[in-house]
Amino acid sequence: MKLTEIEDHMTQTVEATQRNFNTIRTGRANTQLLDRITVEYYGAETPLKGVANISTPDATTILIQPYDKNSMGAIEKAITLSDIGLTPNNDGANIRLNIPPLTSDRRKELVKQVGKLAEEGRVGIRNIRRDAIESVRKQEKKHDLSEDESRDLQEQIQKMTDKYNQEIDKILAAKEKDITTI
Predict the structure, then answer these.
(1) Cα angle at 53 between 113 and 110, to 5 degrees?
(2) Which of 17, 37, 98, 106 could make a disulfide contact with 121, Cβ separation 3.0–4.6 Å?
(3) DSSP character string of 79-114
């Protein structure tokens, strides 16, 4: 495994963690809250973005405009069954999601949820490190690398691991601040 490949994998892990953070609501309306929601549409699980236009007309409302009016029931059902904790309001043509202000208890729950997502990202980084170091050790056993080269590579991999864990910590701190700011 090359160092550039390892770095790419770690970058992808950080980006995935950031995308997961984006699906957790703060106090403001954000269309990314609905990224994980899929709708049963003509027998197939389809991302909500594939069956409706999603926008935020103001800071506390998400507006969902289905392309096919027959899919409104399925969209409402998918939102209700999801873990976002919002109740859809159907006016016959559109579905509105009103984002209530967060209570202090809900903010604490969201901070815990974000912490779990960050830990999943860190575990992903550590797994990449473990696999890379195993690969380096195997090369050393085959005598493809000297002990010094192996040690240097392992140190570089550890430095990369530390760097990407710090990136996860930075985005975690930013998200926690976003959640706790009223």
Answers:
(1) 10
(2) 17
(3) HHHSSS---EEE-SS-EEEE-PPPPHHHHHHHHHHH
Task: Outline where the chain has alpha helix (H).
Answer: 3-22, 48-51, 72-81, 104-141, 147-180
DSSP code at position 142: T
Rounded Cα–Cα distance for residues 68 and 39 (Å): 12
| Sign for the pseudo-dihedral over CA of 10, 15, 16, 21 | positive
- pLDDT for position 132: 94
Nearest to 86 by CA among 68, 60, 67, 47: 60
Whole-model pTM: value is 0.71
Average pLDDT of the chain, as a whole number: 89
Pairing outcome for strands 88-90 and 95-98: antiparallel
The CATH number of domain 3-22+103-180, selected from 2.40.50.140, 3.30.390.50, 1.10.357.10, 1.10.132.20? 1.10.132.20
The stretch 136-149 carries a mean pLDDT of 90
